[in-house]
Design brief:
Helix content is 37%, strand content 19%. It has 263 residues and is of the alpha/beta class. Helix 8 links the parallel strand 7 (195-201) and strand 8. The protein is globular.
Amino acid sequence: MERTIIKEIFSENLKRNKKIRVILPVDYFDSSDKKYPVLYMHDGQNLVDPSPFSNHSWEVLKTMDEMYQEIGGIIIVGIDSDEFRIMEYSNYLSSSSVKRLKKQKIEDIHPEGDQYGLFIIEELKPLIDNEFRTNKDRLNTFLAGSSCGGNISIYLGLKYQDIFSCIGAFSSAFYLVKKGLYDFLDHISYRKDFYVYHDMGTKETGIFSRVYFNEQKVFQNYISTKLPKENICQVIDEGATHSEEHWAKRFPNFLRFCIKKTS
């Protein structure tokens, strides 16, 4: 049976079609009643297939199978990104974000992080819970992404702590949303049973690597004042770049932290 199911659905919140990829665990078709936790991931097109920018994928199917005996089965729902990626993955647009979007000749430039969140919560999750055997509760619902996908994972995960129990922020591009993100983080309450994994390579993007690295330190110091230290996993990957190749290598660390902390 095919373990990656591709669907295209129209989002009323975003007013556009969104392609999703439902990646099923190795034993999904062996049982008619077993239910699974669900991890929602951004940039879904790169989870199994190589990214055209890095020529690498997250290799999530391989990792799911290799870790099955350790963490059990999990359903991963990948949400493809497109030209609206920066808008969907941002609750605030910095001047550099706006410049990037103008180069793409996008006319109506505005942050769509809230609408993207409603798409996941109001449209996508109910569909997944209805069509697949999922554990619907927050302890079995997670969110993760990289770069701008890390930004929106932090924002939406903490906005919807009643829906998600753990987030993974890989190589977050904090500098693109810093003001808006921290303004939001300053005005919310934090559940003591919420978990955050975040990481960074030391050679993310050439001359901007130090910016990425320093901003992750800022986030670590900030989130450490909001959550118990055992709820936070910070990883520094020496020599790692801003690439699916390195996110794939760190992905097992996230799954291990996420599943074991919330089980």
